[in-house]
Amino acid sequence: MTDVPTPPMGVVALPTERPTGSPNRGARVVASGSILLTTAVAGLVAWQSWASYRLVRDVYSAAPTVTVEQITAAEQRSVWLSWAWLVGLAVSWLAFAAWLWRARVTAARTCDGAHRHRVRWAVLSWLVPVANLWWPQMVVGDVHRASRPATPARHADLARLKPSLLVTVWWSAFLTAHAVDLVTVFLLADDQTERAFRAIAVATTLSAGLTGAAALAAIVLMGRIDRWQAARPLIR
Predict the structure, then answer these.
(1) SS3 for the chain, per residue?
(2) Contact, 203 vs 182, CB < 8 A?
(3) Apex CA 208: angle with CA 131 and CA 220, to 5°?
């Protein structure tokens, strides 16, 4: 057995390796799971929209066969799916914001480059009307830049670094999906014509596809940033 040399009295032995970042894996797992479930609900909403359209088309046909019970059941499913989607969206946001907060803190501890927003805006940026159309993407973009392996730990100019295509795809798909949802709600929700139901079905299908793209990009983005940060030594 080899003896380990004991440092002289009054001398503290320094660790041979510097500690690295510790991303919030729990928040990432919860965020990824809730995002996937919300995406699945969006797909079910699209499926129900097409089912409702077929019922309405039958109602307006020359010899309708649809029953009142079928229409009532379709309406109930639509309501429940809408609530499930809203709850899933809220849970996904809370989990993603918790992950982003931790990732923003870790980014500042592994790279001293100046971010465009302080740590608190990892959460608050989503809540400011109008500004929430681009501030969250700025926060995530700066965290991504600061976490890259090639970004120097000291004196990094994050503003001059190349933006992430993955962040752009995630945010563009996310915003477009919600824009489609808003247009559907405000312009088509009160229209009971066959044409309106078909437009709603097309819109919800488009929204589900964009939601899926945003979900995939977000999950890949969180995993990539966590891996990068886990490999970077802390500087403060």
Answers:
(1) CCCCCCCCCCCCCCCCCCCECCCCHHHHHHHHHHHHHHHHHHHHHHHHHHHHHHHHHHHCCCCCCCCHHHHHHHHHHHHHHHHHHHHHHHHHHHHHHHHHHHHHHHHHHHCCCCCCCCCCHHHHCCCCCCHHHCHHHHHHHHHHHHHCCCCCCCCCCHHHCCCCHHHHHHHHHHHHHHHHHHHHHHHHCCCCCHHHHHHHHHHHHHHHHHHHHHHHHHHHHHHHHHHHHHHCECCC
(2) no
(3) 70
Distance separating alpha carbons of residues 204 and 210, to the nearest angstrom: 10
- Pick the range with the lowest mean pLDDT from 36-40, 79-83, 215-219: 79-83
What is the predicted pLDDT for the residue at 19? 63
Degrees (nearest 5) of the Cα angle 178, 173, 200? 45
Q: Is the model's pLDDT at 128 over the cut of 60?
A: yes
Mean pLDDT, rounded, for 65-70: 83
At residue 12 the predicted structure's pLDDT band, cuts being 50, 70 and 90, is: very low
How many C-beta atoms lie closer than 10 Å to residue 195's C-beta? 11
Cα–Cα dist 92/52, whole Å? 27
Of 121, 113, 131, 147, nearest to 232 by C-alpha is: 147
Is residue 174 within 8 Å of 126, Cβ to Cβ? no
Whole-prediction pTM:
0.85
Query: Per-residue confidence at 13, pLDDT binned at 50, 70, 90?
Result: very low
